[in-house]
Amino acid sequence: MPKLPDKHGHFGLYGGRYVAETLMPALLELEEVYCQCRRDSTFKRELRALQRDYIGRPTPLTFAARLTERLGGAKIYLKREDLCHTGAHKINNTIGQALLAKRMGKERLIAETGAGQHGVATATVAALLGFSCEVFMGREDTVRQAPNVFRMRLLGATLREVISGSQTLKDAMNEALRDWITHVAHTFYVIGTVAGPHPYPMLVRDFQSVIGRETKKQIVRHEGRLPDYLIACVGGGSNALGLFAPFLLETAVHMVAVEAGGLGAGRNAASMANGYAGVLHGSKTYVLQDETGQIAATHSLAPGLDYPGVGPELSYWNDQQRIRCVTVQDAHAVEGMRLLAETEGIIPALESAHAVAYAATLVPQLPATAIVVINVSGRGDKDLQSVASFLGENAL
Ligand SMILES: *Cc1c(COP(=O)(O)O)cnc(C)c1O
Predict the structure, then answer these.
(1) 362 by DSSP, 3-state: which?
(2) Which of the two residues, 228 and 141, has the higher pLDDT score?
């Protein structure tokens, strides 16, 4: 199997660096510093200490006894990224990138955010390590996600409302790229998922791979062998690839990427299922677009999945059929949330609930000897209001 990406940042047909000339020096510098840090024991020690003492790693791998019993098939384990500081896996990546920024002598972090989760994770590490921080967010999203806007401000970050385009995540990402071009000397752009120009898809994957490395050790401790299935939701693909990457060479381990089926045809965010190759935010990948290449409007009840692209490496593994891609619609995801809450006392994020919902379909078809790991990418506190409105006030 080839080592990916190649030296120009390609995963087969996908990836690359489709950016303005002015950004190339910054991307090359980042790549060089990252490649040094990856081999540097001081950097690795610093990262490990923060993972342990600040994020709270390793996160548990919890055997889901009552869910296993309820579904009547394979044994189910939950990788508990919901227990990370700030309540989701995103901080695994923002801590890594902030340490790189420190190495490079940058003073200011910028980030794009849709639902605000990556914005909060960036503002958090900026406060921890003493950077100034500006977060770009579409105006539509600042209205929909007011609590996260307040969190970011409380953490000392400045919010930059984006009023171009559809005033959502993709526009925020464009604005952040523009800001970076202008202030590249002292600014580090923290990208929130395995997307964007090379080297971001590579370094975000590496920072999130701690999820899969821990899972591998933990499942062997519990069961004495590797799992049969790994299941994770996909927005840009960072929690999925973080879990999958350390298992890619283990050909007996099946991997399922669950995309947001939203409300069905024409109103979803399932880029691999419904998109085709295009260029978005500096890399070539599956993109939801119309026949003329205009980026399509997306929908998912889970804000973290509501993105019209997917990381280039997932596009590659999808074409190779190393991962299988499925979709789960909004209503089914809400059932998944309720199922995990009722059987295990864990309220997952709506994003993670997509993975739970798909597991509920798959597991009953498997023998009792099979082992399934679901990545619980985050906790559901942030979604209570939108689930309540989705169900109608009295539905619970
Ligand atoms: C942002 C987010 C996602 C989606 O992002 P990926 O890069 O695909 O992991 C999934 N779950 C939670 C809890 C998130 O906050």
Answers:
(1) helix
(2) 228
pTM above 0.70, yes or no: yes
377 is catalytic: yes
SS3 category, 267: coil
Residue 59 DSSP code:
P
- In 77-168, where does DSSP find H-type helix? 90-103, 117-129, 139-144, 146-154
Our measurement of the distance from residue 72's CA atom to the centroid of its chain's CA atoms, rounded to an integer in Å, reads 30
- Structure confidence by residue, pLDDT tens digits, 78-110: 999 999 999 999 999 999 999 999 999 999 999
How many whole angstroms separate alpha carbon 311 and alpha carbon 65?
33
Q: Does 75 participate in catalysis according to the annotation?
A: no
Q: State which CATH number among 3.40.50.1100, 3.30.540.10, 3.40.50.1580, 3.40.1000.70 fits the domain covering 20-51+90-204.
A: 3.40.50.1100
Q: Do domains 20-51+90-204 and 58-87+209-390 have the same CATH topology?
A: yes
Would you list the DSSP string of 194-230? S-SSTTHHHHHHHHHTHHHHHHHHHHHHHHSS--SEE
Between CA 136 and CA 159 the distance in angstroms is 6
Residue 369 — very low, low, confident or very high, per pLDDT cuts 50/70/90? Answer: very high
CA-CA distance, 233 to 256, in Å (whole number)? Answer: 8
Average pLDDT value over all residues in the chain: 95
Domain ranges of the chain: 20-51+90-204, 58-87+209-390
Question: For 225-248, what is each residue's pLDDT tens digit?
Answer: 999 999 999 999 999 999 999 999
Q: Whose CA is nearest to atom 5 of ligand 1?
A: 235
Tens-place pLDDT, residues 147-188: 899 999 999 999 999 998 888 888 899 999 999 999 999 999
Instruction: Say whether the peptide bond before residue 199 is cis (omega within 30 degrees of 0).
Output: yes
Q: SS3 of 191, please?
A: coil
Out of 81, 112, 134, 259, the active site residue is 112
CB-count burial class (<10 Å; 0-12, 13-18, 19+) for 352: buried
What residues does ligand 1 touch, defined as CB less than 6 Å away? 88, 90, 117, 193, 233-240, 304-305, 349, 351-352, 377-378
| The CATH number of domain 58-87+209-390 is 3.40.50.300 | no
The reported pLDDT for the residue numbered 394 is 55
